[in-house]
Amino acid sequence: MNVPVWIWLATVAGLLVLLAIDLFIVDRKPHEVGIGEAARWVIFYVTVAVLFGIGIWMFAGGTHAGEYFAGYITEYSLSVDNLFIFLVIMSAFKVPAIHQHKVLLVGILLALFLRSIFIAVGAAAISEFSWVFYVFGAFLVYTAVKLSQSGLGGEDDEEYEENRVTKLARKLFPVTDEYHEAKVFTKVNGKRFATPLFIVMIAIGSADLMFAVDSIPAIFGLTKEPFLVFSANAFALMGLRQLYFLLGGLLRRLVYLPVGLAVILGFIGVKMILEALHTNALPFINGGEPLNVPTVSIALSLTVIVGVLAITAVASLLKTRRDDRRANGNPGGASAAVPVGKADAGPADTGVEVELREEPVNQLKR
Predict the structure, then answer these.
(1) 245 class by beta-carbon count within 10 Å (0-12 exposed, 13-18 middle, 19+ buried)
(2) Residue 140 in contact with residue 217, Cβ under 8 Å?
(3) What is the mean pLDDT of the segment spanning 288-301?
(4) Of 68, 180, 239, 305, whose CB count within 10 A is highest?
(5) C-alpha–C-alpha distance, residues 357 and 83, integer Å
(6) Could you tell me if 84 and 365 are in contact, meaning their C-beta atoms sit under 8 angstroms apart?
């Protein structure tokens, strides 16, 4: 797929325009984002992403369009898992509800910039070294096993702990104890300070980059085209902010999400290994000759990804509905075992404690 420079520039410019519209319309006046507003924006971003895919189909053909849609759906579904840690970060820092959208906007913009570097490095490595697909495939299979174990409750409860990037930011910039409206930096007694809002943005951006460690190899397993990898990631991240406000307390109901994502990652990992074997050039495997192994088409990949997500969502909702009925029938039983606290109120409730739900937090460790 030969993508001219002007298409790259036009795509980046279009994304910046979308971000500017979001910034000046939604964040023009800080406010708490409601479900209705979030739903409209989610529909808007999904529509734009679909129209972009249709444009790829018209100008580059159905194969590349299928690769884009498979990559977009995969990245968007993996990004939903990010929302758990976003919720915990917002709660840990007690971010005021009216500033949460701005935090996500800047944090995800930072994540997109960092992912772009990651994508460029990954694309260069794949084009230069054929064995990278073996490494990516094996890593995805390993990640799938770990994620499925966490989804089945195989890890101990943990609370959010600031990562090295966030701790470094605290060392470089003195931070105030309180928020100063929507300011990222402020002056106190003539001295310049960063506000907690700045630290939260760093935490969101760096946390998303950690999730990119498995999501970027996953999409490279669906397409080797850097343009498609970048655009799918960009649209997935841009729609993630509004999805955060739309899902809110519903996140706790996606109990089988880690298992579903594990199946998808494992499937893509096996697909990458099969493709690597099919085009093998490593001298210690079959004498450096390709192996006659089956490969997975993009149509089958798209079908598996959509099917697994649908089954995961339905199974999760059925289980939580059944658990709720049991809890209502036995008030002192099942409901006491799952301390949700104020989490049901959604991300807009800034009084949520970090322990708002330990089980989803554990699912973040891959």
Answers:
(1) buried
(2) yes
(3) 87
(4) 68
(5) 13
(6) no
